[in-house]
Amino acid sequence: MTHRFRDLLALEPLTADELRFLLDQSKPFQEIQKHPLKKLATLRGKTVALAFFENSTRTRISFGTAASRLGADTMNLQAEASSIKKGETLLDTAFNLNAMKPDCLVMRHAASGAADYVAQHLDTPVVNAGDGTHEHPSQGLLDALTIGDRLGTIENLNVTILGDILHSRVARSNIHLLGKFGCRFTLCGPSMWVPRELEKIAPGVPIRCVYNMEEALENAHVIIMLRVQTERLNDPPLSANDYILLYQLNAERLKRAHRDAIVLHPGPINRGIEITPDVADGPQSCVLEQVTNGVAVRMAILYLVISGASESGTHPALEAKAKESANASD
Amino acid sequence: MLVIKNGRMLDPATNTDAPRDILIDGEKIVEVAQPGSVRAAPGAEIFDATGLIVAPGFIDLHAHLREPGQESSETIETGTRAAARGGFTAVCCMPNTKPVNDNASVTRFILDRAKATGRVRVWPIGAASLESKGEAISEIAGMKEAGIVAVSDDGKPIATAKLAQQVMDYCRSLGLTVIEHAEDVSLAAGAVMREGVTSTRLGLRGMPAAAEAVCVARDVQLAELTGAHLHIAHLSAKASLEQVRWAKSRKLRVSCEVTPHHFTLIDEDVTYDSRFKMNPPLAAREDRKALIEGLADGTVDAIATDHAPHEPALKDVEFDRAPFGILGFETALALALEQLVHAGRISLMRMVELFTTGPARVLGVERKIWPGQAADLTIFSFDRPWTFHVGESASKSRNSPFDGRKFKGGAVETIVAGRIVHRIQ
After folding, report:
1. Residue A117: which of B199, B202, B272 has the nearest Cβ?
2. Is the CATH code 3.20.20.140 the one for domain B57-363?
3. Of A112, A121, A193, which to mutate for an interface test with B (greatest number of B Cβ within 10 Å)?
4. CB-CB neighbors (< 8 A) of B317 in chain A
5. Is the dihedral of CA B123, B129, B131, B134 positive or negative?
6. From A40-44, A185-189, B191-195, B253-257, the region with the lowest mean pLDDT
């Protein structure tokens, strides 16, 4: 079964079938990351606009790398260099970028719903690279891909998410994806950041909020850490020492989880705050695989929104790859 | 001379619900009588109101006409034209214009513009503090002499309890009602909607109901302390309503208004469409239920629109950046009919009261259909089907979440001081 995606704005509205399809489409691109020659010609002649209205390093580089490995060109807009400060509206900026005729607009913005809003006004496909505290769809997908690789399945798992859930777009995308595959969620962190309303954001998905980390880790198959945003610690101030005392993931606490539990973190990591270095670098940690998978997932997303789903069902990326290998100096 | 014939007259002031003919001469009502028995001079204009309801002129306690200073969003002319289309004969305009209406010169400017360009009566509300900054008390006595009908720092609350106490005390002595935009600004800081499951799901910052109720509680205490007439603007939370109910049970001079959007929509209706962004924000399901109970049982004194036009350039941006507020004049009556009367929650008489004698009492004015009274009348249909198209609105702005909504019943003719200011064919 194939699916078409005009945009990729959020995981919440997607079905399990569509999500499975996105993950399956990412797999050939994972293989490409292992290849000595990684560049394809799949999207040669296409242009991807990267519009980052909010600071980002890894997501911007990951999308840029994904585009270039597909043979596409990129145009870059960064917040610092943008006209936002000159008073131009988001929509005007988007219209201007669009007038340069990109084939896809990848955007990151500090306002929840910003990608959705821009997509309503553009014919060009929009990929949400993170909107405020709403969703981060490509992160949700790359996390699922990583979990599937490590544990052999993404179904019926106990998933514990730790940290500032209220302000996390990563947590929302994780819930809206894994929740459709029967996963059960335990959300844990300081109570101000883990309001009970979270239990109801995905009807039908078992979500519980707990405030005791030992309890939250009990029997977890997947532990997703969120970065403690230092700016949040200041609104109003919360003691960093308190956070470490109650919610830092260390080796001792990790023992509470399932024997084969894995640890994910969307990065960047604050070593010694939310996670101890031995856990971050330990065998259960998947943080660097996440980064590698990020490129694969984003290649699949760009490919799908720009080319549309392959009608034949055979993935052209691999065919293209064969051609590329034969003509490597291209 | 104008005769309104064969209408069903509904007047809460005299508790009349009966067929009546009304004779208007100049700016006044001169006779109210059984159908066919008024003594109109030959050649008098006749309006046949058969099948229609004739009510005292509707008063809107809460509107933003944006003039002076933000004429690209609304002017007194366009705003009052929209008000007339909605059946309002008098609108109270909030002082958060540019400059703020905090002195008699601005008040006089507004009244002069209203005289020159307004379709309906414009009753200015003066700022409680200079520039509504919450520091010094504004020129309240001077503005009263110039024509304000109440005071408010609307758009924000009176900044401190101390200032609120002083303003209430002063206004009691001047005989003015203090209208409070109740909001604890620290609880509401950065919030763009009501806190709840929807805000959490959408990743939009929410304010709790307590952001309003905390301030209502403060002001109710101060109303008791000072004896002032305190009126809570656009009350949206059940907890706030309970504070008002408590105040009324203690016979304090406390009243409140509710907007049509708060008794129609809830936070679950919010999307990233900025037409669903207003302050106070759309509340929870149980709040709406409580507001409707309050409208029915008398705890709520008035329906007010909080008509808040914003030109598309301001409103058509990402949700976080959009200003708060939506249009209100042209849909208020139809929403009240739909949500309250047709839905069987209140009587037609009670609804008319919420638009007429209710708000009149808040301001300390009279409103009834009686010989000698000003000829301000709202004539409306109970069930005429129509569709609201915001593109056809008389307002300069287009920020309504009710665009395209189908209604049953609405204003047919609006009469201000004996003059027909709105009539649909």
Report:
1. B272
2. yes
3. A112
4. 89-91
5. negative
6. A40-44
Q: Give chain A's residues under pLDDT 50.
A: 309-314, 322, 325-330
Token pair listed for B248: 């009324």
Q: Using alpha carbons only, what angle is made at residue B79 by residues B76 and B80, rounded to the nearest 5 degrees? A: 80
Q: What is the pTM of this model?
A: 0.92
The alpha carbons of chain A give a radius of gyration, in whole angstroms, of 20
Nearest of A62, A45, A70 to residue A304 by alpha carbon: A70
Instruction: Mutation target for B interface from A185, A191, A194, A201: give the one with most B CBs within 10 A.
Output: A201
pLDDT at residue number B33: 95
Contacts of A110 in chain B (CB under 8 A): 320
What confidence score (pLDDT) does residue B425 get? 72
Nearest CA in chain A to B204: A112
* A3 domain residue, yes or no: no
A232 and A283 share a domain? Answer: yes
- DSSP tally for chain A: helices H, then strands E: 13, 9
pLDDT at A228: 81
Indicate the domain borders of chain B. 2-54+372-423, 57-363
pLDDT at A322: 47
Tens of pLDDT, residues B56-108: 999 999 999 999 999 999 999 999 999 999 999 999 999 999 999 999 999 99
Any idea of the CA torsion for B230, B233, B235, B239, to the nearest 10 degrees? -30
Secondary structure (3-state) at B9? strand
ipTM of the complex: 0.88
A contacts of B319 (beta carbons < 8 Å)? 111-113, 117
Domain housing A130: 16-135+295-326
Kindly state whether B267 is in contact with chain A, defined as any CB-CB distance less than 8 angstroms: no
Distance from A246 to chain B by nearest Cα, in Å? Answer: 24
pLDDT in the model for residue A310: 38
Domain of residue A308, CATH code = 3.40.50.1370
Minimal-distance CA residue of chain B relative to A116: B272
Minimal CA separation from B280 to chain A, in Å: 20
Are A113 and B201 a contacting pair at CB < 8 A?
no
Report how far residue B124's alpha carbon sits from residue B151's, in angstroms, rounded to the nearest whole number.
Answer: 9
Same domain as A270, residue A191: yes
Q: Do A111 and B200 count as a contact with CB atoms less than 8 A apart?
A: no
Give the fold, CATH level 3, of B2-54+372-423. Urease, subunit C; domain 1 (2.30.40)
- Phi/psi for A82 (5° steps) reads -85, 175
Q: Is B316 on the interface with A (CB under 8 A)?
A: yes
Does A112 sit within 8 Å of B321, measured CB to CB?
no
What residue has token string 């609120």? B164
Average pLDDT over residues B146-170: 97
Task: Summarize pLDDT for A213-223 with one digit per residue, the tens.
Answer: 999 999 999 99
B268 and A CB contact within 8 Å: no
